[in-house]
Design a protein that fits this description.
With about 90 residues, the chain is an all-alpha fold. The protein contains 1 helix and no strands.
Amino acid sequence: MRIIPRLAATTFAIAAALGIAGVGAGDAQAQPGPFAQYHWCPGQFWDPGWGSNWDGNNCHDDHHRDIDGYNHSRDWGQPGWQGGSGPPQQPWQR
């Protein structure tokens, strides 16, 4: 009449094996967040984790706005930057 202890031992062994197998099956499948592309335009996604968007109204890369063409006097963040807080005022704004 050793059926009950043998059944209990078998049940425990099966439960332990399934528990150990379950621990190994739980690997993380996290996806990396989107990264900031070098060139950004209004309407594209901007993740606040990338930092502040220094010009949300114009297409730009990390430092230069597209509307400035070859004029780099208003580039953002360069040493000795003499630009104002935004683009120059338009004639109707003066």
